[in-house]
Amino acid sequence: MLFGYSLRPAIDTAKWVGHLLIHPPPMKKQTLNVAGLSVNVFSLEEPGEDGDGDEGKDGRQETKEKKKKPVAVMFLLHGRMSKAEHMEYVAKAFLDEVHQRRKGAAEGEEVLDLWIVTFDHRNHGSRVVDGQANMAWSDDASKRNDKHAIDMYAIQTGTAQDVSALIDFLPWYLFPNEERVVKEWIVSGISLGGHSTWIALKNDPRLKVGIPIIGCPDYLALIVPRAEASSIPISPPYFPKSFVEYVKTHDPAAARGEGAGGAFWGKKILVVAGREDAVVPWAASERFVEELDVGAEGEGVKEVFVEPGVGHTCSAGMVKEAVRFLWEQVLTERDVAAAA
Q1: How far is CA 235 from CA 146, 224, 227, 244, in A?
Q2: Alpha-carbon gap, residue 275 to 284, rounded angstroms
Q3: How far apart are the C-alpha atoms of 317 and 41, rounded to whole Å?
Q4: Cα pseudo-dihedral 40, 42, 46, 50, rounded to 10
Q5: Which of 26, 78, 152, 166 can pair with 82 through a Cys bridge, CB separation 3.0 to 4.6 Å?
Q6: Which of 227, 82, 201, 221 shows the shortest CA–CA distance to 148?
Q7: pLDDT tens-digit profile of 103-161?
Q8: Inter-axis angle of helices 219-229 and 282-291, to 10 degrees?
């Protein structure tokens, strides 16, 4: 344990694993090399794939039509000291929830297929250059990282840039014959991945939907109390003045209270947090989220789910709430459902 951080992934898989092993969703996984970045892509299999489904003319037509359905691609980003591999169960849990909702959906209600993308953060998993740079402040010299404030912000910002690069190029790797269209780009992430989610949402106008899970949009509100608790001065070399100024002007918190035309205007955002989270306290995000303006009804959507009794972990309840939000706001056509 380093300054309140568990080195285990911030994911509560205990309640999911049994169900997903016994009743796995019909999930397909492919791994792509996108400009040197190893990218995992998860999706639900369509009827008729791998030889399944109806063999008659009608069955073939239905499968062909479904394969033409536009796609919503969601980046699912992992936490600090974790890696993309740890997110596979989370991706399965998301897709299992979508699969269950499909069973009760009206015909034509689901208009987009959800595909989930995972990859390693910078300096994590297969991309580790220096493991020490992922550490925090510590009394143990072997685990101490005096550049923690800079390293963590650089990593989460760099990962947000990776998301934007993948939006540029991933469609041509997935659909080289342009057989599918990516109609919606979504970003979600857990812990450090949640921080990156906020940054990507702010910086890339193509990301219209975001679900930060136990992440924080206000870096200084998060990192300064941590530094003070570790007796780290908020001054150079730990906090260079130019670094602090950069954060103040580039962080999502810099967009606090922006109105029409702001970075978050017109976006659909579900903020997910644990009420008992001591690592990324809800208090560090609360003011920003309260003042966040995404527009009036019909322009943007802002929802907040702070789960009671939950600490710094992505719970099964959080996944259910996230998929509910995606189903209602992105994947389905409400008018079709209402008319059914």
Answers
A1: 12, 11, 10, 9
A2: 12
A3: 23
A4: 50
A5: 78
A6: 227
A7: 888 888 888 999 999 999 999 999 999 999 999 999 998 899 999 999 999 999 999 99
A8: 160
Amino acid identity, residue 227? A
**Tokens 């897709």, located at residue:** 95
User: Which H/E stretch holds residue 71?
Assistant: strand 71-77
**Strand 27-34's sheet: what is its strand order?**
27-34, 37-44, 113-118, 71-77, 182-190, 207-213, 268-274, 301-307
Map residue 101 onto helix, strand or coil.
helix
Two structure tokens written together for 18: 């049994």
For residue range 89-116, list pLDDT tens digits in order.
Answer: 899 999 999 999 988 888 888 889 999 9
Count Cβ neighbours within 10 Å for each residue of 258-281 and write b for 16 or more, e otherwise. beeebebbebbbbbbbbeebebbb
What tokens appear for 227 in the block? Answer: 């530094």
Measured in residues, the chain has a length of 340
**Angle CA(291)–CA(271)–CA(92) in degrees, nearest 5?**
165
Domains and CATH numbers, the chain: 14-46+57-339 (3.40.50.1820)
